[in-house]
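2024-03-11 09:14:02 INFO worker-7 job=invfold-0412 stage=load source=structure_tokens
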């Protein structure tokens, strides 16, 4: 049974050096983006969720700057880092271990749910996230393998969330609810609640997953605890926008927006699955708009926090460029947000055309962020939060105290 198999893996797996390095980068990245949301209006709303894991996970996800596990299309750290910090107390080694156990389960379970699950409209971060959070809390609290098995099964009733929520508060709130569901399931298992472990297989079949996928039937077959690694975002928007913005910036950075007569973006159909807003009117909607990605890449020196604000989206020049953008979708045998490559063609007023193409966006596992890029991202997040901190302050040892101090229940 999947629940028993994953629980056994989580209890037995021991992190290596590469796993620990990934965990340390993940806590740095997640703390930075969560703190950057300290003045976001969602903070007051999230207070109603109750519980540190739920509130912190919501804030870690709301600006869409958190890391991503590409094989499963899930934001692993936005669930697993807050849950580990909320449940492991002041023990950084335990927090890191709990994070990696939950992250490994989330990667494997999300991969088994698969692209079919995602393209049906499920929000895989929340569906795979609830069982993962149960594992994080279970490991942090020293639950037995049997208890963690039951915690995974007990998280199933709350393992939901849909992409129709994208562009609204509901997207980040359902991430918080997934973290909360996992913590609650672990508490229920600890208290002795019974569960039919086969509920996990039944649930996977109902939502389009593959209960026979090797990632969940043989989770120990991978050398790394988080197979495939994690992609770090360079731009504070949906991961599906990282590549088109990167293509425009790397090859067409010196192009004057006033000279643009038309823009054509050609990309495989699956890569635009979460990009549901074609004429965004808010910064949150812009994070899921391929047309806006073109506009900010051409207009802004840096597609950072301000570029995805309501003020930036409402610029007259944005409306013009969005209207000039034609998105052409191609069919492909591949799957996922990085299927194939994105090609961009800009037609200028004088009749000339310029071309750009990109396969691996900056920050992806095949093109990982440099130390300088990570430092710059974290510094931008800290500055946005208005805090007097250094990147070296954002660690497993200090994380829970930082979040409790700066992300309390009310602004």
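2024-03-11 09:14:09 INFO worker-7 stage=emit residues=411
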């Amino acid at each position: 049974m999947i629940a028993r198999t994953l629980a056994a893996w989580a209890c037995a797996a021991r992190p290596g050096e590469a796993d620990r390095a990934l965990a340390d980068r993940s806590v740095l990245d997640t703390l930075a983006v969560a703190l950057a949301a300290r003045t976001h209006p969602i903070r007051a709303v999230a207070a109603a969720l109750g519980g540190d894991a739920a509130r912190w996970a919501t804030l870690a996800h709301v600006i869409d700057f958190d890391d991503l596990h590409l094989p499963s299309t899930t934001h692993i750290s936005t669930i697993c880092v807050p849950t580990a910090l909320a449940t492991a107390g002041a023990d950084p080694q335990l927090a890191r271990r709990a994070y990696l156990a939950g992250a490994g389960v989330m990667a494997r379970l999300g991969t088994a749910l698969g692209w079919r699950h995602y393209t049906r409209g499920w929000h895989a971060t929340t569906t795979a996230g609830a069982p993962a959070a149960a594992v994080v809390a279970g490991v942090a609290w020293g639950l037995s393998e049997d208890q963690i098995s039951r915690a995974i099964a007990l998280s199933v009733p709350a393992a939901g969330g849909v992409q129709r929520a994208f562009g609204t508060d509901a997207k980040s709130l359902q991430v918080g609810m997934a973290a909360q569901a996992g913590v609650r399931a672990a508490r229920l298992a600890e208290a002795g609640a019974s569960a039919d472990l086969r509920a996990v297989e039944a649930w996977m079949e109902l939502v389009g997953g593959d209960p026979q996928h090797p990632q969940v039937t043989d989770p120990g077959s991978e050398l790394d605890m988080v197979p495939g690694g994690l992609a770090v975002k360079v731009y504070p928007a949906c991961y599906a926008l990282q590549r088109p913005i990167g293509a425009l910036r790397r090859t067409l950075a010196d192009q004057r927006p006033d000279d643009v007569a038309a823009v054509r973006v050609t990309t495989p159909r699956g890569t635009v699955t979460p990009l549901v807003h074609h004429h965004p009117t808010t910064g949150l909607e812009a994070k899921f708009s391929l047309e806006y990605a073109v506009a900010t890449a051409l207009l802004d020196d840096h597609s950072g926090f301000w570029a995805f604000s309501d003020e930036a989206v409402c610029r007259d020049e944005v409306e013009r460029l969005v209207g000039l953008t034609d998105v052409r979708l191609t069919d492909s045998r591949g799957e996922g947000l990085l299927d194939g490559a994105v090609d961009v063609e800009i037609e200028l007023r004088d009749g000339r055309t310029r071309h750009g193409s990109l396969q691996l966006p900056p920050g992806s596992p095949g093109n990982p962020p440099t130390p300088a890029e990570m430092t710059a991202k974290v510094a931008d997040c800290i500055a946005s939060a208005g805090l007097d901190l250094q990147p070296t302050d954002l660690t497993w040892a200090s994380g829970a105290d930082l979040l409790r101090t700066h992300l309390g229940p009310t602004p």
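2024-03-11 09:14:09 INFO worker-7 stage=report msg="The domain at 239-358 is CATH 3.30.1330.120 (60s Ribosomal Protein L30; Chain: A;)."
2024-03-11 09:14:10 INFO worker-7 job finished
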